[in-house]
Amino acid sequence: MKLTSFGAALEVTGSQHLLEVNGKRILLDCGLFQGHRKTAMEKNAEFGFDASTIDAVLVSHAHIDHTGNIPTLVKRGFQGVVYCTHATESLCEVMLLDSAHIQESDAEYFAEKHPETALQPIEPLYTQEDAEKSMDHFKGVDYNERFELYPGIDVTFREAGHVLGSAIIRLDIKDEEDGQEKSIVFTGDLGRARLPILNDPHQPARADYLICESTYGNRNHDPIEEGIPVLARIINRTAERGGKVIIPAFALERTQELIYSLHLLDHEGQIPKNIPIYIDSPLASTITSIFKKHKELYDEELQTAFKTGHSPFEMRQLKHTASVEESKDLNYLIGPAIIISASGMMEAGRIRHHLKNNLEDPKNTIVVVGYQAEDTLGRKIVEQAEKVKIFDRMYDVKAEVVILESFSAHAGMDDLDTFVQSIEGLKKVILVHGEEDQSQPFAERIKENTGAEAIIQEPMVPVDL
Ligand SMILES: [Zn+2]
Ligand SMILES: [Zn+2]
């Protein structure tokens, strides 16, 4: 049995790990690489394997860096089934369509900017039609229900506590090659205990092999409890100077957590009573409606809140802007406001218009609440660039920039250590989904604290299990 990674090896995005066992080729996640546009286009267009040879895909969660290349896989001849939880399936339906829309507009934009390519038109990576077709391959499964994928290969999805529907995937295998029983746990993206909305991540008791994310392998986040009060202070000081709070947020999970947090702050009178809140992302609004339908996945706190009659995702000053016109109207908004928009890494979507309009005014605040990959506009802003390029023009970054990591949906360093150390019988830990400065120290700690071997997975280099 061997495992080869074609993405999210020595980097965070583009999660794609191929498990070859008992004559089957099982792909764990099929994500998009996100980063510098040109590199992304090239990397995403070519798989490191023949798509038609893949038998099945197991998807950990709906984030695009874990699912976004499924339409390409289908387009290139994949004929198998994509397994994921029911909530992930519902979320993929809207998220893959949105991703296709971004691919299409990117290709159009590129063609406009490079008229010399007119004879060889730039094709989008995939179209909305491709995304729709790929949904026919999906099969939703229940959490905690062990099922037989193939004879001798059983699969179980467990709560990962990262985003709605997110799963830690467990495979129990009888390896025909050496006759041994082996268990593999793939963390996908591991969440954190006590995150709002979601249940805490499942803790596996035993496993032979662990394929573990390492986004924050060497860093702890601020405690979750600090997020909401800090957010209140940011909103109040920005409102006092008459500015706007701009929050680039992933449409999935982060936006809903923000709405819920703002709801709590409003309820407790901690933020100005009538400050308007705009969700300027049709995708985020659609996803919020999916959240409303999956009440069975809420943690106890939220279940109770619903029982008492108020919906955590609704409040009177909250507006969802649907049309482009409504979104454009926000440019002329006078006075304090909170605008939550996507994409989270600021590379696409309406957020770029809000940044362009608001970055140069010191009254405003940009609140960064999510992970920013290398070479993205978000990373440049986090790294305190004085000027950034948006739509071919340079803008001075004069607004206050606050990085609010307590909202992170990823396990921090201590959470990862506890998770790994609580698993008995580990032989090998394969670290993926992390840049080297995060995975290297994590690997050292695993070697020191457990008897397991720790490998930092390199792209396209098979590892024997
Ligand atoms: Zn994720
Ligand atoms: Zn991820």
Q: On the 0-100 scale, what is the average pLDDT?
A: 94
- How many domains make up the 3D coordinates? 2
What is the CATH superfamily classification of the largest domain? Answer: Ribonuclease Z/Hydroxyacylglutathione hydrolase-like
According to DSSP, the number of beta strands is: 22
- Strand ordering within the main sheet: 6-5-4-3-2-1-22
Share of β-strand residues? 15-25%
The Rg value, from CA coordinates, equals 22 Å
Helix content: 25-40%
Overall body shape:
globular
CATH architecture of the largest domain: 4-Layer Sandwich
Helix/strand class: alpha/beta
CATH class of the largest domain: Alpha Beta
Report the sheet with the most strands, covering strand number, pairing sense and barrel closure: 7 strands, mixed
At the third CATH level, what is the topology name of the largest domain? Metallo-beta-lactamase, Chain A
Give an overview in words:
The protein has 2 domains: about 1-220 and about 410-465, Metallo-beta-lactamase, Chain A (4-Layer Sandwich), CATH 3.60.15.10; about 225-405, Rossmann fold (3-Layer(aba) Sandwich), CATH 3.40.50. It is built from 14 helices and 22 strands. It has helices at about 35-45, 65, 70-75, 85-115, 130-135, 225-240, 255-265, 280-295, 300-305, 325-330, 350-360, 375-380, 415-420, 435-450, and strands spanning about 1-5, 15-20, 25-30, 55-60, 80-85, 140, 145-150, 155-160, 165-175, 180-185, 210-215, 245-250, 275-280, 320, 335-340, 365-370, 385-390, 395, 400-405, 430, 455, 465. The chain has a 7-stranded mixed β-sheet with strand order 6-5-4-3-2-1-22. It has a 7-stranded mixed β-sheet with strand order 7-8-9-10-11-20-21, with helices on one face. Strands 14-13-15-12-16-19 form a 6-stranded parallel β-sheet. Strand 20, helix 14 (about 435-450) and strand 21 (about 455) form a beta-alpha-beta unit. The longest helix has 28 residues, at about 85-115. The model has no long low-confidence stretch (mean pLDDT about 95). One zinc ion binds next to loops.
